[in-house]
Amino acid sequence: MRRISIGVTTGALVLGVSLAAMTSAVMAQSVTLTLGSWRTEDLAVWQDQVLPAFEATHPDINVEFAPINTNEYNAAIQSQIEGGTGPDLITCRPFDVNNEWIGRGYFSELDGLAGMANFTDTAKAAWTFEGHTYCVPVAAVLAGFYYNVDIFNELGLTPPTTTAEFIAVLQAIQDSGKYTPLAMGSADSWQLAYNGLYSVGPAYWKGEEGRLGLIDGTKKLTDPEFVEAFKAFAAWRPFLPPGQEALAYPDMTQLFTLGRAAILPDGSWNIKQVTSTGLNVGVFGPPAVEAGGQRYLQEMPDMAIGINAASPNQEAARTFLDWVAGPEFQQIYVNTAPGFFAMSNQAVTYDNALAQNFADLKTGASLTPRLALDRLSAGTPPLDDEIWRLLQLMMTTDTTAEQATQELQAGLESWYGPQKGN
């Protein structure tokens, strides 16, 4: 039988072994992180913009964006983490939901992360629990008033700066007989709070002074400043469109974008939809109670990112979050998702003109988040949900501000320790 021999030079053998070893070492050093999020609409933002920018300077760390449907996100994340299959990085809800997750041990502490120096205590508050911070703030949303610039010019109106001016503008629009003053309806109760009461109310309860007063029990919802805030919101009712009881959130936007209503109380998250028809749109902030008074602006912490405490890739995850805390990420994200605003103290510019106008409202304003999402909605009945319900009654029945605040206070006292016995 003929023998067949295959010759391999020593050099080729060594080279082959070396290449294999190098490839093995690179593979061993490379880490892949998964990022769970409820922002399915941001898939292209992350895949095409954010992650390529990070990976360009961190080639040894790959990040996979793995969004879950918004309505399923909370339950899915809890199920995954409890089952040991949770993502390395978790997009964090603000305040009570996230505090529950922190209490369950889902997150690693981030107190020593260098990038945290870019955020104030107020910016971190929605993700701080018992003195420790667990998530890097990503973005906040603002709330104010979109207005049709052409209608204002036609009627000789200017954006109001006080409550009295605001009502006078609404009355002037009503008197023109041509336009609905406010594109707002009561079918979706959540936006009565988020786009209504929580915008104008802080000027009465003095923003953080009132919000924190409810939390520590030194203030009650039946105190005059809260009752007056509810009355200020109830004063909008005569300026709502006919049939507003059945008008839902998408209908409000359409009423405004079709040019049939002059003002749309809404959040910055709706910038794309509000400008979709090419309407000449401006934005003004919630008015002060009186001339020269302090202005307040609702800045709601919307999302942050934390590290799954069970992730085996803690170091790589911290490297990623340190980058997220910096200006490069903030600049990319706010300009690929207009209507979301950086929460860091680093300078950021906004390419979208209306987003920049919204951001400019922060200058000179006292910033405050939504009233009832921090600790006050962690029990039953949750204050935030109750405010939705009672505002809807105020705008559709003869329920008064006094009756609404009395019922809200009774509900809060029934379960929330600092308010019991007040």
Strands, helices and their partners?
Elements: H1 10-29, E1 31-37, H2 43-57, E2 61-67, H3 70-82, E3 89-92, H4 96-103, H5 121-124, E4 128-129, E5 132-133, E6 135-148, H6 149-155, H7 163-176, E7 180-182, H8 189-200, H9 202-205, H10 208-216, H11 224-234, H12 249-257, E8 261-267, H13 271-274, E9 281-284, E10 296-307, H14 314-324, H15 327-336, H16 353-360, E11 366-368, H17 383-396, H18 401-413
Parallel strand pairs: 1-2, 1-3, 7-8, 10-11
Antiparallel strand pairs: 3-10, 4-5, 6-8, 6-9, 6-10
Helix pairs in contact: 2-15, 8-17, 11-18, 17-18
Low-confidence stretches are: 1-28
DSSP summary, beta strand count: 11
Biggest sheet character = 9 strands, mixed
CATH superfamily of the largest domain: Periplasmic binding protein-like II
3D architecture notes:
The chain has 422 residues and is α/β, with parallel strands linked by helices. It folds into 2 domains: 31-139 and 301-357, 3-Layer(aba) Sandwich (D-Maltodextrin-Binding Protein, domain 2), CATH 3.40.190.10; 142-300 and 364-420, D-Maltodextrin-Binding Protein, domain 2 (3-Layer(aba) Sandwich). The protein contains 18 helices and 11 strands. It has helices at 10-29, 43-57, 70-82, 96-103, 121-124, 149-155, 163-176, 189-200, 202-205, 208-216, 224-234, 249-257, 271-274, 314-324, 327-336, 353-360, 383-396, 401-413, and strands spanning 31-37, 61-67, 89-92, 128-129, 132-133, 135-148, 180-182, 261-267, 281-284, 296-307, 366-368. The strands form 2 sheets. Strands 1, 2, 3, 6, 7, 8, 9, 10 and 11 form a 9-stranded mixed beta sheet that branches. The termini are far apart.
